[in-house]
Amino acid sequence: MPKINIVPADRIKNLPPYLFAAIDKMKQEAIRQGKDVINLGIGDPDLPTPAPIIERLQKAVADPRNHQYPSYEGMLSFRQAVAKWYQSRFNVTLDPVTEVVTLIGSKEGIGHAPLAFINPGDTALMTSPGYPVYHAGTLFAGGRSYFVPLLEKNGFLPDLSSIPESVAKEARIFFINSPNNPTAAVATRAFFESVIDFANRYNILICHDAAYSEIYYDGVRPVSFLDVPGAKEVGIEFHSLSKTFNMTGWRIGFAVGNGEALAALLKIKSNMDSGVFQAVQEAGIAALEMQDAALGPIRKIYQERRDALVPGLHKLGFKVVSPQASFYVWIKIPANTLSAEFASRLLSEAAIVATPGVGFGTAGEGYIRMTLTSSTERLLEAIDRMEKAGVVGG
Ligand SMILES: *Cc1c(COP(=O)(O)O)cnc(C)c1O
Question: Nearest C-alpha to atom 3 of ligand 1 is from which residue?
């Protein structure tokens, strides 16, 4: 049979290897060798979706009205539930018709956003370390990524004054993310105010990723970017039901904020996808209506885990700030050690999967990330194994 040469486009060749796939391969290999692997690598909640959400889906799935194509922007009832939740949770008023767009998970919206705002050769600002999709989406749009480092001395918030004037002038969008993956840093209101000034000065659209706003500790609630005066004029906020309600597999999220920006994003989306299954949107309404009834117990569990893992790491000599939000722990490793080497030592000597910081960007070198998505018992077991194997900080 004749055969053609399959030649992937440059945009695929230029992609950095997808970090979590590489980690997964290492893990599979260890499991194949019969090891009892403790996976602290992947940010996917281990807890089940709360029952009322599942029940709402079960009902909705039987309704033939939900079997047809949904609307591109999402059901009005879902967008109204989002607006209502934003009002009660963040004190932010949204017009459900023009200021809320339903997404197939926030990753979908984040990945598509550069197609809506970046021309070939344009610059997108983002942080290093950071969620890999900001860069991938920018690459696919033919744009260039400029990485602002997240440094310990700045509380892991981007230092806007470090961005060269020439870069800022060329930038069209800026991805920021609080509570942060992977550093767990939480933006202050003052930081958001400086971001809004920066956006106005250089005419840059702010894309704030708030996937972890509801995973917080000690009762200290992260603020919404949109709760800061002037934010809606310069930006949009991405949100997800995934991490909040243990719904990563369901694929539902939303973007809110600037109506013109959302209309541009929707233009891309309506040519690429056909929205979220309505039964899933119905379940999403149930989730947003549950609010703290669902979230209180979930937060309590993560907090208990944090309070087991972090003191254990301190005992082993690691420098780590106890997270105030997100389910990530960002751990400084001993100086002169590469994060990939440290992660592979953890796996081979203690059968623990952790994510090397460098996988989130070059400024993540010197750190590893662990997640709180395993039981307290497993986290304590991980500390025990590290101690026995002598994989310690310092
Ligand atoms: C998990 C994650 C997302 C994407 O979540 P979805 O399931 O696509 O909604 C977005 N941003 C960050 C920082 C994440 O960690």
Answer: 107
